[in-house]
Design brief:
486 residues, 0% strand, globular
Length: 486
């Protein structure tokens, strides 16, 4: 059941009615409703996943309380390491066990130690496990470091963990940001709800119009890349990074919108990353909850340890952090290379000393330097995203070998790209309009946030009506959200 489905509309209508009209008296009853409906929402994927979520959440809840109450540092550290190991072990088993075993078997076969035909185990990856496990790890770290007190409210903690708007694809929410909001009664906030509805509509347009239509084109190009020209493959890489952004940020906008209607704010995962000229600034604006999590819990401790090596230590810390960014996405060498390359991209700005410089233009239009800087970074990120799309390194290198051939400098045969979706030229027009709206709305939380401040009712509602018409007339075929696989 995805956000842009009729089933979700029915589900959320029922939740909304019960939340504000039946269970409105106390925070606990509202949280109980959210927990039960979130469990139901998740159970539509698999009841087995619900059991794992409940077990992990309950174990970490009590473990955090025990850690906080222990006075002996050695015992406290032992319990903390045990808890972190358990959470990492959950991720390792479900996401990485087959990957490591297969690669070790292949290595041992290659050097002649074994002669095994190991078959991968049939391990079903729980949707959202990477997101909620990182939340649990962060919670234990913060409790162990005495940055927060462990909560004594199991109901609120499990509600935080299972909260359906963020359960399947994040954001990776911090407990100290979320719990205070749900430990008090929530009343209907008209202004916030309207804002949430607008953000939801914008997220839906991103998903069903831009992402879904782009995905149809992308799949055609990637599936036939050996018969295509390099110029077509460059278009394929660009179309893919656009579809990935529209898909994931579209999910985030819809999740934030739904949550605002329930009077709960969650982290907005994207802040117009393609309008930057600096790779560091790009990552501050792309998948914000993951990069901020890794900044706090991985990069900062590493850079402290490596500080004696100065800039070299900073570079090593960044590369290790981005290797984890890649590995977090899945058990595939393509993700490892993806993370490694993004870590390497930081080397020039570390050497120059402008890693923390914001590169978002404040002008009505970008300067020539800013424009070409944005285009250059966009293309660089798009090319790296080929690794993200490819099913394995062989496919990725095959794609790159055609892309960087002489045919890269030929005129792309657009007519060969006509698919079951909308015409590529119409898709290009929609993408240009989409990014234009994003550009002029980049100072807001989301692109059309400023529309509500337009004084003319006619103009304001005309814009909303136009967005809805675009969704109805140009929606692409059904596509699952990309980040559900992580």
């Amino acid at each position: 059941m995805i956000f842009n489905s009729p089933k979700f509309a029915l589900f959320f209508t029922l939740v909304f009615f019960l939340y504000y009209f039946v269970f409105k008296k106390k925070a606990k009853t509202q949280n109980l409703l959210l927990l039960v409906t979130s469990i139901f929402f998740y159970s539509l994927v698999s009841w087995k996943f619900v059991v794992l979520l409940a077990f992990s959440g309950t174990l970490n809840y009590y473990l955090a309380k025990i850690i906080a109450n222990k006075k002996v540092e050695r015992t406290k550290k032992f319990l903390f390491i045990g808890g972190i190991s358990f959470n990492i072990g959950i991720l390792f088993y479900f996401k990485y066990f087959n990957f490591f075993i297969i690669n070790f078997v292949q290595l041992f076969n290659f050097i002649g130690i074994t002669n095994s035909n190991f078959t991968a185990l049939n391990i079903l990856l729980p949707i959202g496990v990477s997101f909620y496990t990182f939340q649990l790890i962060g919670y234990l770290i913060d409790v162990y470091n005495e940055e927060i007190e462990p909560t004594n409210d199991l109901l609120s903690f499990l509600t935080y963990l299972a909260y359906f708007p963020k359960l399947l694809s994040g954001p990776i929410e911090r407990v100290q940001q979320f719990l205070p909001q749900i430990q008090k009664e929530r009343e209907f906030n008209y202004t916030l709800a309207i804002d949430g509805l607008k953000q939801f509509v914008w997220g839906m347009l991103k998903k069903v119009v831009i992402a879904n239509n782009s995905t149809i084109l992308v799949d055609q190009i990637f599936n036939n890349h050996q018969e295509s020209s390099g110029s077509i493959l460059l278009l394929g890489a660009i179309a893919y990074i656009i579809s990935l952004y529209a898909d994931f940020s579209g999910f985030t906008d819809m999740a934030c919108g739904v949550s605002k209607i329930l009077n709960i704010k969650i982290t907005n995962n994207f802040a117009f990353p393609f309008f930057t000229t600096n790779i560091s600034d790009f990552w501050k604006r792309w998948h914000i909850s993951l990069t901020s999590w890794l900044l706090d819990y991985v990069y900062t401790p590493l850079s402290f340890v490596m500080r004696k090596f100065k800039k070299a230590g900073t570079i090593i810390s960044i590369i290790i952090t981005f290797l984890l960014v890649g590995i977090w996405h899945g058990a595939n060498w393509t993700y490892v290379l993806f993370g490694l390359l993004h870590g390497i991209y930081f080397i020039p700005i570390v050497i120059k000393g402008n890693m923390f410089t914001s590169s978002l233009s404040s002008g009505i239009f970008p300067s020539t330097k800013e424009f070409f800087g944005m285009i250059s970074l966009f293309v660089l990120v798009a090319l790296t995203a080929v690794l993200f799309k490819a099913s394995n390194t062989i496919e990725a290198f095959s794609y790159f070998s055609v892309l960087f051939s002489k045919s890269l400098f030929t005129v792309p045969n657009i007519h060969a790209l006509i698919t079951d979706g909308i015409h590529p030229f119409l898709l290009l027009i929609l993408i240009v309009l989409f990014f234009s709206i994003e550009w002029f709305g980049r100072k807001g939380e989301y692109a059309i946030a400023h529309v509500g401040s337009i004084r003319s009712n006619f103009l304001r509602y005309s814009i909303y009506f136009a967005l809805i018409l675009v969704i109805l007339f140009f929606k692409g075929g059904y596509q699952q959200f990309i980040y559900f696989q992580f």
